[in-house]
Structure to design on (401 residues):
């Protein structure tokens, strides 16, 4: 969603300035081009070199420093920006902007831009509740400036109350939400996404499962919602937060639970993305009492589970079917065989032996292989970015039908 977006991050002089480093890093990982402007006070809290390294761009901090290019920097940045994000924003900065004061590079550039400006305040709780500060915030809101509400808690000064910089996740979500309305290219499309592991019970205590964290499926569901789709998420047990904006969440445990959910929901959806790691086998019999340890080896007989993807391929009508292949060897051969066997439109294949790919990581390295044998190789990237590539391919298939 942030690919090819230019975001200017303004950092002002507060103790929360160190959190701007995480914000800049996260925005870069989401594909944004990030430029940082620091006030002189901000430089007392965070070294400009840190933000320069994280943003991969020169940090601007002085109206009169030697320019890096022969352009009027504040005007060029003001024109280039798709969004201004001020994090943290002090009471001083908010007051200057509200009063039309432009006496440093940051305030001058904000005054010169037509881009949206989102402000994340951070200050002492008494300062934040001061009527003057609140009047300035109300004035700026009336002029179209966005605000990310500060959190409540123990502040650096020792006071407790509202004034803490909002959580970094909240700030990133606010940025993403701003761009949502610009890129809702899957508006109205019904998508069902499966995610996480399945669990096959042996007895009330033990079960067979796998290492899936659900991160890939949850990323796909989240990105699909942001792009306007109506999303049903069918999820095994995970430790992840429910993505915002889902039309429906169906929680399952076993492969049979997954099969029943998918058969019930299949005809209601246009796209089925099957990223769950489904157990191929289940115990032949279930013990309703805990199996006690003995001096003998334990033999557990296994039966095959239904191949959910294959069963859906048999009843496929207009739907786009997307499968996943997590392999440790012969990746292309194994993944290509699954496309034909399961009647998929394309498959997302990854090699679990490669660092940065597979279960439990925030990144993935995949190949998108379609039914014609065409292969799109993606470099190591965040799972949110992989999700968007998958959705881009889904969109291109839908457009040909």
């Amino acid at each position: 969603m942030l690919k090819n977006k230019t975001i200017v991050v303004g950092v002002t002089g507060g103790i929360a300035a160190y959190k701007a480093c995480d914000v800049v890093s996260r925005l870069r990982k989401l594909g944004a081009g990030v430029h940082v402007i620091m006030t002189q006070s901000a430089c007392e809290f965070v070294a400009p070199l840190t933000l320069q390294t994280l943003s991969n761009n020169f940090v601007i901090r002085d109206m009169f420093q030697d320019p890096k290019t022969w352009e009027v920097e504040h005007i060029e940045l003001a024109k280039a920006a798709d969004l201004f994000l001020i994090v943290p924003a002090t009471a001083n900065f908010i007051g200057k902007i509200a009063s039309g004061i432009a006496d440093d590079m940051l305030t001058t550039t904000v005054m010169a831009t037509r881009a949206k400006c989102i402000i994340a305040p951070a200050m002492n709780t008494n300062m934040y509740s001061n009527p003057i500060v609140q009047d300035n915030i109300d004035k700026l809101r009336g002029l179209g400036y966005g605000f990310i509400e500060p959190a409540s808690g123990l502040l650096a000064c020792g006071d407790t109350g509202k004034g803490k910089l909002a959580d970094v996740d909240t700030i990133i979500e606010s940025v993403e939400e701003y761009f949502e309305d610009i890129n809702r290219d899957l508006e109205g499309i019904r998508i069902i996404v499966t995610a996480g592991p399945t669990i096959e019970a042996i007895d009330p205590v033990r079960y067979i499962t796998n290492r899936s964290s659900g991160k890939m499926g949850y990323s796909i569901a989240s990105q699909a919602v942001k792009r306007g789709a109506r999303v049903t998420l069918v999820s095994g047990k995970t430790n992840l937060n429910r993505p915002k904006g889902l039309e429906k969440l169906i929680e399952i445990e076993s492969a049979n639970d997954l099969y029943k959910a998918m058969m019930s929901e299949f005809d209601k959806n246009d796209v089925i993305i099957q990223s769950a790691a489904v157990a191929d086998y289940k115990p032949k019999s279930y013990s309703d009492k805990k199996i006690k340890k003995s001096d003998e080896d334990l033999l557990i007989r296994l039966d095959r589970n239904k191949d959910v993807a294959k069963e859906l391929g048999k009843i496929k009508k207009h739907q786009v079917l997307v499968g996943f292949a997590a392999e440790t060897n012969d990746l292309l051969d194994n993944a290509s065989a699954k496309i034909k066997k399961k009647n998929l439109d394309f498959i997302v294949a990854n090699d679990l032996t490669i660092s940065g790919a597979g279960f439990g990581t925030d990144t993935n390295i995949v190949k998108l292989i379609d039914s014609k044998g065409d292969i799109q190789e993606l470099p190591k990237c965040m799972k949110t970015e992989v999700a968007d590539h998958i959705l881009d391919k889904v969109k291109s298939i839908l457009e040909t039908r």
The chain has two domains: 6-183, 190-286+300-400. The longest helix spans residues 383-399. The chain has a mean pLDDT of 92. Residues 156 and 296 are 60 Å apart (CA to CA).
